[in-house]
Amino acid sequence: MHAIVPSRLIERKRDGAALSSGEWQAIIQGYVAETIPDYQMAALAMAVVFQGMAEEELAALTEAMLASGKRLDLTGIGKPVVDKHSIGGVGDKTSLLLAPMLAATGLAVPMISGRGLGHTGGTLDKLEAIPGMRTDLSLEEAVAQLRTLGVVMMGQTPEIVPADKRLYALRDVTGTVESIPLISASIMSKKLAEGLDALVLDIKTGSGAFITDPEQSLTLAKTMIAIGESHHCHTVALLTAMDRPLGHACGNALETEEAIMGLSGSGPSDLMEVTYALGVEMLIAAGAERDRPTAQHRLEQVVESGAAKTMLATLIDAQGGAAGVVEDPSLLPRAPRAVPYLAHRGGVVAEIAPRTIGHAIVELGGGRRTTEDEIDPSVGFVLTAKPGDSVHEGQTLGTIHAQDEEGVRIGVAALDEAITILDAGQATPLVTHRVTLEGVERLQC
Ligand code: URA
Question: What is the pLDDT of residue 134?
Answer without folding.
Answer: 98
